Structure prediction request, 373 residues.
Amino acid sequence: MVPEEKASPVEMHWMERAIELARRSVGVSSPNPAVGCVLVQNENIIGEGFHEYEKFDHAEIVALKQAGEKARGATAYVTLEPCSHHGRTGPCADALISAGIARVVIATGDPNPEVSGRGIEKLHAAGIPVTTGVLQDEARALNDGFAKQIRTRQPFITLKAGVSLDGRIAPGSASKGRTHYITSEASRTIVQQMRHASDAIITGVDTIIADDPLLSDRSGLPRRRPLLRVVLDSSLRLPISSKLVQAANGDVLVFHTDENTERERELASAGIRLERSPKIEGHVSLRYIAARLGEMQVLSCMLEAGSRLNIAALDADIVDKLCLFYAPVFLGGNAVPLLADTPRNLQQLERISWKTVGSDACFEAYLHDPWKE
Prediction:
């Protein structure tokens, strides 16, 4: 890959537009990757597009159809390596070659090890110059979930939390039953965008009982599949009266270990999907659940949970990324900690970053890089 700093300003400019288009693919492309494409001729856009799963056409095909005959001699800027194989559609690399594209600029290669590099090889074999690695990190961030699922058949899981300066995520028991925000409105807006980009959200039944959250995607942005709301509830304590159950429409999945068939029937009649999990130390198996969600073509999940589930997920090594919004408040020793204990299995953090969000500070770090060879 060509390092980003060696890309020309022109390449950076047009790839930024392609990434902007790829962002419009988020939420409507899963379980396929979010991809954007721009065709440029004489410094003018002659075609552009992004992938929507229901419309079949990949981003390159959308752009080529828009450009028509003008595509001959143009440069294509694509956020992901053009595919080289037949799937629901034909190979995009072949389509670019047939259209007479003169040059292709790619942000990142295909993370699928079975096809990675083959699209580029096809373009090279047709005599088309290819530049890769332009704005690679930005393009990859849009498809961490696709990269993880295509390589491991498991979803990319982000542990998200709003945290006080003294490491607490909620006030003490006196606040039970009420939603209590400690982060800024700006942070909460970003969280909704994160939910929109996720296929599922995972929490524990204790969080449902304590806070009665709805756990919905309130971004207002279009999405192809409903946000799957996953509750880990070993003994089926999920209240029928909870907002989550009352709003369920085939989009609430409870993993449990109980054999209370009467309780199962009660929840099922309320529209809840139920699956039994293997039992590990009296609780559902987190590794089983990650694998099961992967089988369901869930690419990315947000873990929004309490301190016990947070530590259990870290210890089970299913968390790929941390996203912590630190608010400028102290909640005191009686408040709920981020983690119930010290992680036994915490991986070395990579790609650490901080940014200001409203009055908060957002900390992000990877535990596992889904793109790593």
Summary: The chain has twelve helices and 18 strands. The CA atoms of residues 189 and 219 lie 8 Å apart. Confidence is low (pLDDT under 50) at residues 1-5. The longest strand covers residues 156-163.
